[in-house]
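Exercise 7. Given the encoded structure of a 92-residue chain, write a plausible sequence.
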């Protein structure tokens, strides 16, 4: 899975349109192998991003859970701690 795509379900506040679009863009980039499409593929690329974003919106809206919504700040801090541990200098 693409590491840059973040979980968007069950957060308070809910995922924004920008977050959904950014995740969709990352997904299409991963599938296509292009960070920026050529002019010849730009329309297909943009259409795919829009379609993936719409599917993501529908998915997020239709899912249910009994779990408490996650706090964005707490989850971001956990991610920073995991990153610091993962990339810690082994020499001390």
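Solution.
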């Amino acid at each position: 899975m693409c590491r840059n795509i973040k979980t968007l379900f069950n957060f308070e506040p809910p995922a924004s349109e920008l977050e959904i679009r950014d995740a969709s863009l990352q997904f299409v980039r991963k599938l296509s192998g292009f960070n920026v499409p050529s002019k010849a593929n730009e329309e297909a690329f943009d259409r795919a991003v829009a379609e993936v974003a719409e599917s993501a919106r529908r998915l997020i809206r239709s899912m249910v859970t009994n779990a408490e919504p996650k706090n964005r700040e707490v989850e971001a801090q956990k991610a920073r701690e995991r990153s610091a541990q993962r990339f810690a200098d082994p020499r001390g």
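Remark. The helical segments are 17-32, 42-62, 72-86. Students should compare their own answers with the one above.
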